């Protein structure tokens, strides 16, 4: 009896799976639409590129942000002190004025000796020594100018480091999540502070048979419905993947949907109403392939 029960259980599991797959395939075959999920058009994780302690977070989850808006800041007090020292160093002119004055004195001495030589009151050796002194003073002036240039670059470098400690939004979007708190240390192994998503435009990524790919033209407007209430929306085909999935025989197709009013929620089901020619091509491909392709894509991610 135990052996019979165990055998029955082993037979029952594949039967259940087969029934579920058959029902899914029948539902897909009998319909004129393919489904996908609405996703943000862009999902950007905002990292802190400089290690340190978060001293400020200027937004909350759900806030709308604009491109270039300050989101948070990492402690920069040590860098600010270094910047002040670098500012004084790059603006210091004492060595420059001294080098300029010395060069001018050596230039006048050389000119004076050259005049004396014309009258026979100076030797060539004196002229050569004065010329060497002038060239040495000219080299010292050049060295001072080069040192000031290095100091200016050092000031700019510190200023850039400070700017990198201010986290800014790269897009117009919405704060989807905040991963850190004020006072928390941001390490190189875990630099993500928050995630920004773009929702004024959303997207849906469909898996369609290779046979349909030739009929899909980027830039074409398509009719779709969104959500459980099947609200009609229009999308624009943005991309047809250049590589097909060999296992499922399908191609990824990205559709862009305008969402300025925010009525299309990310995560909602999106149904693409196919035209007659696409329906015919879709019917020739086992629906199981489409189901498997979408499942694999959701597991692996885009």
TrEMBL record:
Secretion signal span: 1-27
Residues annotated as domain CusB-like beta-barrel: 208-276
One term under GO cellular component: efflux pump complex
Multidrug resistance protein MdtA-like barrel-sandwich hybrid domain: residues covered: 52-195
GO molecular function: efflux transmembrane transporter activity
Similarity remark: Belongs to the membrane fusion protein (MFP) (TC 8.A.1) family.
Protein name: Multidrug resistance protein MdtE
Gene from which this protein is expressed: mdtE_1
């Amino acid at each position: 009896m135990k052996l019979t029960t165990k055998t029955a259980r082993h037979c029952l599991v594949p039967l259940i799976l087969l029934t579920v797959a058959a029902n899914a395939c029948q539902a897909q075959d009998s319909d004129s639409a393919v489904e996908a999920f609405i996703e943000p058009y862009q999902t950007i994780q905002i990292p802190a590129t400089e290690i340190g302690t978060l001293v400020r977070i200027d937004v909350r989850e759900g806030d709308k942000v604009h491109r270039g808006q300050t989101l948070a800041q990492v402690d920069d007090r040590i860098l600010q002190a270094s910047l002040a020292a670098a500012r004084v160093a790059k603006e210091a002119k004492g060595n420059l004025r001294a080098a300029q004055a010395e060069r001018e004195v050596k230039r006048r001495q050389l000119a004076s000796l050259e005049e004396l030589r014309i009258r026979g009151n100076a030797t060539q050796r004196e002229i050569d020594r004065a010329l060497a002194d002038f060239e040495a003073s000219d080299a010292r002036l050049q060295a001072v100018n080069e040192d000031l240039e290095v100091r200016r670059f050092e000031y700019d470098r510190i200023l850039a480091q400070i700017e990198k400690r201010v986290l800014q939004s790269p897009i117009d979007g919405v704060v989807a999540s905040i991963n850190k708190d004020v006072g928390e240390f941001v390490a190189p192994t875990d630099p993500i502070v928050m995630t920004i998503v773009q929702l004024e435009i959303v997207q849906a990524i469909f898996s369609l048979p290779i046979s349909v790919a030739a009929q899909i033209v980027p830039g074409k407007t398509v009719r779709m419905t969104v959500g459980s209430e099947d609200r009609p929306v229009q999308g624009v085909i943005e991309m047809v993947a250049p590589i097909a999935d060999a296992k499922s025989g399908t191609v990824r197709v990205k559709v862009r949907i305008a969402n300025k009013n925010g009525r299309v929620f990310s995560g909602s089901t999106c149904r693409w109403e196919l035209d007659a020619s696409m329906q015919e091509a879709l019917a020739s491909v086992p629906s199981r392939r489409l189901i498997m392709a979408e499942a694999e894509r959701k597991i692996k991610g885009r």
